[in-house]
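Two proteins, back to back. First:
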Amino acid sequence: MKITDFEALSFDCYGTLIDWEAGIGSVLREWADRRNVNMSTEELLVAYSDEEALAERNHPTDPYPSILSRAMRGLGKKLNVEVKHDDAHALAISVPDWPAFPDSADALQRLAKHFKLIILSNIDNDGFAASNEKLGVEFDAILTAESIGSYKPSPANFDALDHHVDTMGVPRNKLLHVAQSLFHDHVPAKGRGMTTVWINRRHADPGWGATPNPDADVTPDWTFASMAEFADAVESGRL
């Protein structure tokens, strides 16, 4: 199928549309500097990544601010560095400050001319509402971890996506999933036969950053370095 044959796009938000590494990294950087932790921001993000995934797996019904707080405390234990209540709270309330990638809003507006747009995100409802103000588009459906009761890569989140797409009258084979994270999105999506687009925001950087290593071979159907590049490809009709 060509990209333009699809009817709907489901998006991961954080890492794909919102620069969560910039948001999380700024909080971790301030904490590490106060504690004289001799690590780069990239090293802090890598150390943090498994702590967030662990918190989401062990506490699937916790709201995302609680997940952030748990992950921050877990990072402190891993590094043997003190995390005070105010440190964990600073990360827990930081989502509204996380910036959108510069190309996200324009690309979404361009894509909305061709597809229905759906959010499938590991976030709470209030957190996404704050981020959505930066994205400048009205989504046709918003599915959050809070509304589903679990966090990706749980199959339950993709079950919820399938059910909602059915209610929208979109054939499942006409849904294209768009995400940055191989761990949270592409591995579980490809495991159930979905077609996917990888927005490889870290194409110029080594390693996985704030996203855990997927520890699995997965091949997205298309790969783009940015949302702008993806929108360009759709408008050109070349893929």
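And the second protein:
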Amino acid sequence: MSQIPKEPTALGHDIRLELYKLQLELRYCEKRAYDLFLQNLIKGTSHLSLGQEAIAAAFGVAMRPDDWTFCTYRGHAHTLARGASMEGVLGELMGRQCGLLGGKGGSMHLTDVAKGAMGSYAIIGAHLPVAAGAAWSAQYRGTEQVAVCFFGDGTTNIGAFHEALNFAVIWKLPVVYVCENNLYMEYTPIGSVTAVEHPAADRAAAYGLEKVVVDGNDADAVYGTALKYLERARKGGGPALIECMTYRHSGHSRADPGQYRPPGELDRWLERDPIKIYRERLLGLGIVEATLADLESESLRKVDAATETARASPVPDISEIDKNVWADGSTAWRN
């Protein structure tokens, strides 16, 4: 059984600075999305992952460019972590032509196939079997690609979770399943409706898998774990199930004030903010304040530039409404 590491993985400064920069970009971009929503420039709901950046950043750095990411509707960070353009993500949230999907997909369907971001899935658990299928394709073709599938703790009580794990083990597929356990499903604490403490890891043994629990707020710990199981899957060692313990700073969605959380819980988790603890670690390792300040300024400038590009982009023309409906073209091809 693997438990939360007591010491961070030994890494070079270059990797650590890359991890810090990516966490910053994810945090600043998500915060900007919230600001744009308050300005009525982002319509509808969306689901932020503020507080969970260490997981997306660590896997984004650890994965190969040709690996695949499958994520949930809370997928902005995972899409950006694979290298999707920031203006493309913000543009999509704002419904603009520069968006990743031309402004037609919105927050819950971010996709950038060229970057290996194979979609955000709004149906709970729907993407776990899809990720298994992609892994089967890689296995069949011998490409050593790995599918990485991110999901929330609530997904562990969905049938697709168990079905996908079962077949992944039977066929020894190169897929890594990552549960982002932020303690809550939508508004319900996962512990109040689940018989085990760790909803993913405690069920791993039922499928012959190792129990793996990692501190999801520690980018070093997640990165080291990701490298280990990505490499094992790549070399034919089969699937893995990793449970990352984390916490979302905001409610389930924009409409949720999160008032169901016990008093003091959020404050305790804010002390373990992944960016806060990582910055402190870098300073402790001798990286100077000026270097970190430069990364912070650079990341914010990148978000500002992406915001202006997205704001200036026009909304999709009505003539685009029937395009990309079918895999082989628009509805005109079928009429």
